[in-house]
């Protein structure tokens, strides 16, 4: 057993876990954050993507002990209270989800993608970068639409924030 | 229609919980005292179980118990069954082999469950499962249906001699043979429909809880039809009587057919919960899902299509061998018969049709309905044959189809179905226009300059949805009725709950069903809640599959709404001292037509519950239920066009455009319908280009048992799709709906394959058309 302590969605948490415990299982079972899903055994599907220290990580590829000391954001921590994150809002507006199982991972991966591409995104880039997230319901059509739309919205609000600061 | 009524593009009500991580799937459920299960599964495709030693496993840390099949039998738990009786052409009933939820003396496929281990943690259960010592005597196995029929093939079930489950036929063999004999041209093809794994993203799971105090069971399960699960587990598997068994299917992460069936695991978890005295949860890992979820397709077919000198089809002869796997899954028998051969007329006038189908046991996972179920197989063979015929006859594929279209309705096919309405030329025209079919030659030439082979292919599908009426399917062998139920409860303040037997696992029922209510009474959809997925809340239902939730499920709601509206109008008329016939309810208000007299909706509801001032003799309350049994199937149809570019150096196919023109009848929410089509096309393109379940011939091991080995369509494998609909209303249900859930998966595979074979100039290509196969086909074409 090992002790882990980390910040999850802004809250300090700690626990004692079996050494083999994956981050995803720590989040789901110890913290009850069941929005992060497990869809495969081989780190292929991306349903478990969370942000660790600001970067998208498949939480099934990381041991809980490796994440100790890190700041983790899960799907539960993405919205600002009742106000949806722009990527969440875009998924709803553009029907980017059906059964919802892959959705938390998709949204976390997409948020990270948009952050990494301040220059903006095009369809080919979005499709290439979503390669690590599998969806069986939507055929990706509306997911791609949602990510592109969110990327534009976020660029605009960033622009506005900059203009305000100036 | 109003902004939230029928036809409106309303964003989904269910999204908020799903995008914020607040969805509740079975694996998210926690019950006090809950323990974890792991199944011990057969590593062999076919073997006798000689000895099982659980001593070591039972002594492992955290282990509560290890339970075996013989204990399950002692407790009277029944075998799994197939619920649709098919008779062979000689009149004998299908030969169903015994399927014990835990194998007792023989295992018949890799993954067959042998024992359950219950332990404090999932890790401990798995560790102990590995410590169960089983002595097997390996037997010869067979994984291909064609091989299982050969003399000397291993006998899989004593009940099915030569592994043949049934040998069934439909249509007129003599007339078809005569048409072929007289034909000016006959197109012959050998068609393989590749085996697929449905791969809903949420793996199957079950949580069984036996409550000793109440002598009552609760099962949380990943089901598309919790009521059917309860019925079958009660009536056939002797788990518990219906009044002592509650089945809950909460948020379910996709189904595509694979979550219709009742599997061994939910039965065993319920039984194990009583045996051990603790709630037992099992969640499949992905490899377990690959091994044990019911697979789809897996047909091998010989087809002959006869034409007269005017290129009119005169006959169609089909001979199919269908792989059923090691056991007959719940609806497996219906798939290659009534869901397949009855659609072999396609969109065409074909005077004579005959189909023969042999269903066969093999040492593989059970095979059952997967998105489309039988209809994709029918469409694939018809549409590849049509395209091939056009090439052989030297005519345009579009015009050959057009020439043979059914144009007058109702149309009785020679294979049971009576098509009620459709306009196939409209879909063909719409698709050709959207795809700029006429401009293809130019695009092909431009591609050739870049060194790419460009091809175009089409597919004109028809399907039958909303399977019914119940009496008709009963006469064809179905063990259940195929109606749906609904209850509309208006609360005292006017908010509304709709209880439905149609489970939603991605289809957006919580939104579209609410739109029906909004449309009827002009109330906001936020004041309407859709309740489903719990047998304690909803009395009965048949569930979600076969694109039936719209045509059947929503029709039941309409029927219940009719009754509510009638009573509400009576109350409103009484309150306003007006004639019932003059009352209209709209925008949340009951009005006397042509006057300014009105009563808000909530006051009508309140009056029903205060019961201070109701018409004489009226019962208080405003709640009505209805069962709806359709009078006919519905027949969605459409035309799909796919255009590809193939790199002759690598064999890689890129889909450069994909056009879908569907006729789904009336549409409640176009956004959701489009989403269903996108997803269906992706699965169909997956079948055509990427997916194929593959068993090793010698060992019977599933070699495609993870996402590292089974190629799922990913975002960069697919283009954006151009979809459109035309709307010929369905005459057989009150909403005029046909159903849209499966069309994409049905119509797309032949369009893709027709495009690739057009591009490379070699028709000898099977799905999935991987770069390796395409590259080889290009080389083979050059040699000729």
**What assembly state would you assign to the polypeptide chains in this entry?**
heterodimer
Structural class of chain B: alpha+beta
Instruction: List the uncertain runs of chain B.
Output: none
- CATH domain class of the largest domain in chain B: Alpha Beta
Which architecture of the largest domain in chain B would the CATH scheme give at its second level?
Answer: 2-Layer Sandwich
The helix fraction of chain A, in percent, is 25-40%
Strand content of chain A: 15-25%
Instruction: Spell out the CATH superfamily of the largest domain in chain A.
Output: Beta-grasp domain
SSE arrangement:
The complex is a heterodimer of chains A (166) and B (784).
Chain A: E1 2-8, E2 11-17, H1 23-30, E3 49-52, E4 55-58, H2 64-67, E5 71-73, H3 86-93, H4 103-116, H5 123-129, H6 141-165
Parallel strand pairs in A: 1-5
Antiparallel strand pairs in A: 1-2, 3-4, 3-5
Chain B: H1 15-19, E1 35-41, E2 47-53, H2 55-58, E3 63-68, H3 69-74, E4 106-107, E5 113-119, H4 122-131, E6 133-138, H5 145-148, E7 164-171, H6 173-182, E8 185-193, E9 205-211, E10 216-221, H7 226-235, E11 245-248, H8 264-276, E12 280-283, H9 286-292, E13 299-307, E14 313-325, E15 352-361, H10 375-393, H11 397-404, E16 411-412, E17 418-419, H12 424-434, H13 440-449, E18 453-462, H14 470-475, E19 484-490, E20 496-500, H15 509-521, E21 528-531, H16 548-575, E22 583-586, E23 589-592, E24 598-600, H17 601-610, E25 623-628, E26 637-646, E27 653-663, H18 670-689, E28 722-726, H19 743-760, H20 771-783
Parallel strand pairs in B: 1-12, 10-11, 14-15, 20-21, 27-28
Antiparallel strand pairs in B: 1-5, 2-4, 2-6, 3-5, 7-15, 8-13, 9-10, 9-12, 13-14, 16-17, 18-26, 19-20, 19-25, 22-23, 23-24, 26-27
Helix pairs in contact in B: 10-19, 15-16, 16-17, 18-19
Question: Which keywords apply here?
Answer:
heterodimer; A: 166 residues; alpha+beta; Ubiquitin-like (UB roll); DNA polymerase, domain 1; 6 helices; globular; B: 784 residues; Aldehyde Oxidoreductase, domain 3; Aldehyde Oxidoreductase, domain 4; 3 domains; 7-stranded mixed β-sheet; 29% helix
């Amino acid at each position: 057993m090992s002790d882990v302590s980390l910040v999850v969605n802004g809250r300090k948490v700690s626990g004692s876990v079996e050494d083999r415990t994956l981050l995803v299982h720590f989040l789901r079972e110890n913290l009850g954050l069941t929005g992060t899903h497990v869809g495969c055994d081989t780190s292929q599907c991306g349903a478990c993507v969370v942000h660790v220290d600001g970067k998208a990580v498949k939480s099934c590829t990381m041991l809980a002990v490796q994440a100790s000391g890190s700041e983790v954001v899960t799907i539960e921590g993405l919205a600002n209270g009742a106000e949806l994150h722009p990527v969440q809002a875009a998924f709803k507006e553009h029907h980017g989800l059906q059964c919802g199982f892959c959705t938390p991972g998709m949204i976390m991966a997409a948020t990270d993608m948009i952050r990494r591409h301040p220059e903006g995104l095009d369809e080919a880039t979005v499709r290439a970068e979503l390669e690590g997230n599998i969806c069986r319901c939507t055929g990706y059509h509306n997911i791609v639409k949602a990510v592109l739309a969110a990327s534009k919205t976020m660029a605009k609000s960033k622009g506005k924030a900059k203009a305000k600061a100036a | 229609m109003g902004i939230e009524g029928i036809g409106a593009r309303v964003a989904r009500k269910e999204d908020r919980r799903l995008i914020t991580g607040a969805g509740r799937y079975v694996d998210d459920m926690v019950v006090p005292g809950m323990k974890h299960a792991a199944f011990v599964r057969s590593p062999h495709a076919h073997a006798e179980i000689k000895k099982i030693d659980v001593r070591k496993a039972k002594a492992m840390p955290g282990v509560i118990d290890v339970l075996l099949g013989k204990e399950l039998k002692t407790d009277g738990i029944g075998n799994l069954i197939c619920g649709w009786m098919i008779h062979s052409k000689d009149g004998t009933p299908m030969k169903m082999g015994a399927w014990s939820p835990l194998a007792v003396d023989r295992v018949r496929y890799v993954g067959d469950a042998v024992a359950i281990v219950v332990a404090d943690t999932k890790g401990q259960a798995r560790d102990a499962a590995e410590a169960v010592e089983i002595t097997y005597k390996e037997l010869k196995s067979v994984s291909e249906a064609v091989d299982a029929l050969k003399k000397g093939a291993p006998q899989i079930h004593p009940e099915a001699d030569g592994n043949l489950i049934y040998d069934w036929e439909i249509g007129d063999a003599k007339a078809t043979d005569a048409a072929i004999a007289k034909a000016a041209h006959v197109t012959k093809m050998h068609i393989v429909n590749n085996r697929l794994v449905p791969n809903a993203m949420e793996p199957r799971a079950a949580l069984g809880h036996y409550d000793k105090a109440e002598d009552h069971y609760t099962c949380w399960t990943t089901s598309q039809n919790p009521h059917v699960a309860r019925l079958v587990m009660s009536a056939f598997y002797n788990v518990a009587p219906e009044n002592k068994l509650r089945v809950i299917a909460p948020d379910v992460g996709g189904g595509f057919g694979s979550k219709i069936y009742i599997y061994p695991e939910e039965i065993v978890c319920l039984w194990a919960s009583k045996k051990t005295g603790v709630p037992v949860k099992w969640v499949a890992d992905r490899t377990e899902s690959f091994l044990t979820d019911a697979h789809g397709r897996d047909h091998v077919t010989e087809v002959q299509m006869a034409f007269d000198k005017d290129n009119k089809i005169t006959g169609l002869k089909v001979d199919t061998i269908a792989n059923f796997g090691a056991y007959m899954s719940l609806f497996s028998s219906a798939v290659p018969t009534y869901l397949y051969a009855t659609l072999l007329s396609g969109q065409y006038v074909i005077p004579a049709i005959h189909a023969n189908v042999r269903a066969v046991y093999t040492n593989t996972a059970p095979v059952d309905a997967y998105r489309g179920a039988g209809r994709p197989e029918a469409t694939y063979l018809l549409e590849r044959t049509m395209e091939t015929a056009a090439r052989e006859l030297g005519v345009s594929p579009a015009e050959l189809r057009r020439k043979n279209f059914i144009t007058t309705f109702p149309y009785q096919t020679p294979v049971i179905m009576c098509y009620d309405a459709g306009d196939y030329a409209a879909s063909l025209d719409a698709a050709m226009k959207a795809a700029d079919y006429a401009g293809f030659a130019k695009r092909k030439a431009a591609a050739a300059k870049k060194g790419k082979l460009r091809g175009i292919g089409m597919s004109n599908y028809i399907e039958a949805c909303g399977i019914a009426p119940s009496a008709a399917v009963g006469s064809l062998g179905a063990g259940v009725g195929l109606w749906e139920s609904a209850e509309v409860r208006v609360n005292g303040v006017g908010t509304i709950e709709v209880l439905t037997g149609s489970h939603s696992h991605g289809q957006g029922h919580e939104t579209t069903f609410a739109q029906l209510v909004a449309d009827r009474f002009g109330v906001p959809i936020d004041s309407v809640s859709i309740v489903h997925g719990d047998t304690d809340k909803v009395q009965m239902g048949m569930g979600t599959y076969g694109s039936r939730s719209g045509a059947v499920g929503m029709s039941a709601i309409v029927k219940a709404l009719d009754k509510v509206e009638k009573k509400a109008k009576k109350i409103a008329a009484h309150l306003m001292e007006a004639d019932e016939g003059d009352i209209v309810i709209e925008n949340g208000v009951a009005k006397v037509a042509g006057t300014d007299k009105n009563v808000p909706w909530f006051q009508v509801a309140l009056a029903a519950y205060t019961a201070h001032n109701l018409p004489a003799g009226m019962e208080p309350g405003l709640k009505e239920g209805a069962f709806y049994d359709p009078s006919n199937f519905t027949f969605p149809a459409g035309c799909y066009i796919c255009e590809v570019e193939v790199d002759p150096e690598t064999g890689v196919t890129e889909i450069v455009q994909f056009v879908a023109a569907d006729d789904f009848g009336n549409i409640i929410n176009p956004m959701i319908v489009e989403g269903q089509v996108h997803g269906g096309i992706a699965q169909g393109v997956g079948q055509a280009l990427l997916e194929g379940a593959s068993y090793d011939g010698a060992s019977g091991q599933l070699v495609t048992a993870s996402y590292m080995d089974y190629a799922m369509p990913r975002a960069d494998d697919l283009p954006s799709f151009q979809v459109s609909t035309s709307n010929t209303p369905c005459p057989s249900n009150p909403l005029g709906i046909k159903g849209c859930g499966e069309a994409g998966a049905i119509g797309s595979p032949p369009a893709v394959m027709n495009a690739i074979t057009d591009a490379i100039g070699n028709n000898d290509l099977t799905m999935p058309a991987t770069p390796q196969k395409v590259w080889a086909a290009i080389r083979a074409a050059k040699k000729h």
